[in-house]
């Protein structure tokens, strides 16, 4: 989380437990990708715990590069792909699947650009204002475009999906990002994860109440 190593590790442990419980609640293979999101949140928070340690304790400084890049892997590379992919697996209607596949493709393209720019410019993590600030030298044009595509790939799929309760996830995500952007703009990447527990609880309920789908004929 955004406040200390202890908070990050504690949040990571809680999210990991929620993630395992959510995966156990999934009753069909196509639910697993969405059910795994809280577990990934947990791993991301644990990674940030090590970022905190590397920045605040000299004996852990050697871990900074690995921990920072692991955190950025989740925040910049995995999520633009994973949410659309998870919703795509949930979907049963062919027309909506085609739309979701296009959105997934956009997310994949964004992630590839993210990988390129991260490799090109590197990532700097530093403690400012009692939070961790992640700095990547992205071109300004790419920053604006990436924010639009990021929102498209992580929010829109839930509103397209036939399973309406997926919209709960999208609505909580919208509110959490808006609150974080208004109150903690400089630390958006880190502070937003404060809402991961709430999102994970929503995901647990979505998966728990998800309908059983008939197997599609080949």
Question: What does the model show?
Answer:
- With 218 residues, the protein is mainly alpha-helical.
- It has one domain (5-208).
- 72% of the residues lie in helices and 6% in strands.
- The chain has a two-stranded antiparallel sheet with strand order 1-2.
- Helix 1 (5-25) packs antiparallel against helix 3, helix 4 runs parallel beside helix 6 (140-160) and helix 6 (140-160) runs antiparallel to helix 7.
- The N and C termini lie far apart (45 Å).
- The relative contact order is 0.16.
The total number of structural domains is 1
Total number of strands: 2
Form type: globular
Helix content: over 70%
Tell me the fraction of residues in β-strands, as a range.
5-15%
Q: From the alpha-carbon coordinates, what is the Rg to the nearest angstrom?
A: 17 Å
Give the distance, in angstroms, between the N- and C-terminal Cα atoms: 45 Å
Major sheet details: 2 strands, antiparallel
SSE order, one letter for each helix or strand: HHHHHEEHHHH
**Helix segment tally:** 9
Structural class: mainly alpha
Lateral arrangement of strands in the main beta sheet = 1-2
Give the arrangement of secondary structure elements.
Layout: H1 5-25, H2 32-35, H3 37-56, H4 64-90, H5 94-121, E1 123-128, E2 131-136, H6 140-160, H7 166-183, H8 188-191, H9 196-208
Antiparallel strand pairs: 1-2
Helix pairs in contact: 1-3, 1-9, 3-4, 4-5, 4-6, 5-6, 6-7, 7-9
Q: Which properties best describe this structure?
A:
72% helix; 9 helices; mainly alpha; 218 residues; two-stranded antiparallel sheet; single chain; globular
